[in-house]
Amino acid sequence: MPPKKKDADAGDEVPLSARFGRVKNTLKMGLVGLPNVGKSSLFNLLTKQSVAAENYPFCTIDPSEAKCPVPDQRFQYLVDLWKPPSVVPACLSVWDIAGIIKGAADGAGLGNAFLSHIAAVDGIFHVLRAFESDEIVHVDDSVDPIRDLETIQSELCLKDLASLTKTEEDERNAIRKAKGLGRSAEVTFPENFATALEKVRALLTANKAVSTGEFTNVEVEIIKEKFALITTKPIIYVINLSKRDFVRKRNKWLGKIGDWVKTHGGGLCIPFSVEFEEEFFGLRDYPDQQKAFLDECTADAASVGLTGPQFKAKSVLPRIIKTGYKQLNLINFLTAGEKEVRAWTVFKGALAPQAAGVIHTDFERGFIKAEIASFEDFKALHGGQASMAKLKEAGKYRQEGKTYVMNDGDIVLFQFNVTGGKKK
């Protein structure tokens, strides 16, 4: 198996919270934050679908779920080469969850329902408001993202503390039942459960996410199996700025938000602007006007001395989607042919038979081998042909067995055979 290449994309490094994640390819991100910070507007932009985004708290009660295509230049390269009738990109599932307010853990503002929705996702886009507007009310009457961070963090930790109490009692009852003891009998927890319990309690009491703690591998497995916690999930902080601040990369809150995140276990921060993105997206049917809009924004940045590639105006929605996908510890592999080019999602570390099972359970059950080429080798060697012929000549088209660990961007053809079936 060839060595894995490090991807320089933001968010590629596996977060500590991935230790606690489900090993699945059907994972979800949730948009979380206070009311009126831009969650539903961001959701509309990400998914190109329409959900309620009215200017009043709790306009979103049931979470809206949609699939966001994951931008991938490798996938698009194969599409342009094969030009098939069917094109299916990898997707990130995103939920728009209604706003939380202080006291949500105690049921304020329909908070318990919202916190349950958060518990159902695998990662969090925490949307923060760092723009002023007289037209868009703030639930606390003033803009202060640090206060908002503390509010959300506190509510999530309080919810987890309540879950921890239930977990502790459930474990006591399970031990009593196994030993035939009465309901009031004192019990001693197994050592690893007890240490995990106390570490988690200490973090939550200090208003810190469980994902930031230090745990042994055994403790991690216990937390995954027995503790139903929200703060084990990866969090990406998405900071909603005004168009002007976004273009000029300046805002009085950015440094303070960064400092808060660092002192609370770290995490990724992505500044963006709903105002900018909506204007840019609104010109999608007019490419010349869209380009002129970006040029105007770039010129605005240059007018205050901000020049260079990093200050060239562009949408950050692709980065938000790709970062969410990677923070969930997901990768994709590719299949390509005359009829279809498709990107399939698997968890990082998946073996070839598990990847085959994403296409069809028969592929995993009757797995024989995987014929694989890396995208980099294909791009360098295919010589303009929509085939693997040149790679075979160069010895870059490999056959891998059941123990092969899938790499991001592998181009694959699976061979399988099931009883009573036909080899394909």
Low-confidence stretches: 1-12, 49-61
Number of strands: 12
Distance between the termini: 24 Å
> Rounded to an integer, what's the Rg over CA atoms?
24 Å
Q: Give the spatial strand order of the biggest sheet.
A: 2-4-1-5-6-7
Give the ordered list of helices and strands.
EHEHEEHEHHHEHHEHHHEEHHEHHEE
Fraction of residues in helix: 25-40%
Given helix and strand content, the structural type is alpha/beta
Overall morphology? flat
**Please, how many helices?**
15
Beta-strand content: 15-25%
The largest β sheet comes out as: 6 strands, mixed
Averaged pLDDT: 87
Describe the structure.
The structure is a single chain. This protein is of the alpha/beta class. It has 15 helices and twelve strands. The strands form three sheets. The protein has a six-stranded mixed β-sheet, sandwiched between helices. Helix 4 (145-179) runs antiparallel to helix 5 and helix 5 crosses helix 6 (217-226). It is flat. The two termini are 24 Å apart. Residues 1-12 and 49-61 have low confidence and may be disordered.
Quick description:
The protein has 424 residues and is of the alpha/beta class. Helix content is 39%, strand content 16%. The longest helix has 35 residues.
In terms of topology, how is this protein built?
Elements lengths: L27 E5 L6 H9 L16 E6 L3 H10 L3 E3 L2 E6 L14 H9 L3 E7 L15 H35 L11 H15 L11 H10 L8 E6 L2 H6 L5 H10 L4 E5 L1 H9 L4 H16 L14 H11 L2 E7 L3 E8 L4 H8 L1 H5 L1 E7 L1 H7 L7 H5 L4 E3 L10 E6 L8
Parallel strand pairs: 1-4, 1-5, 3-9, 5-6, 6-7
Antiparallel strand pairs: 2-4, 8-9, 10-11, 10-12
Helix pairs in contact: 4-5, 5-6
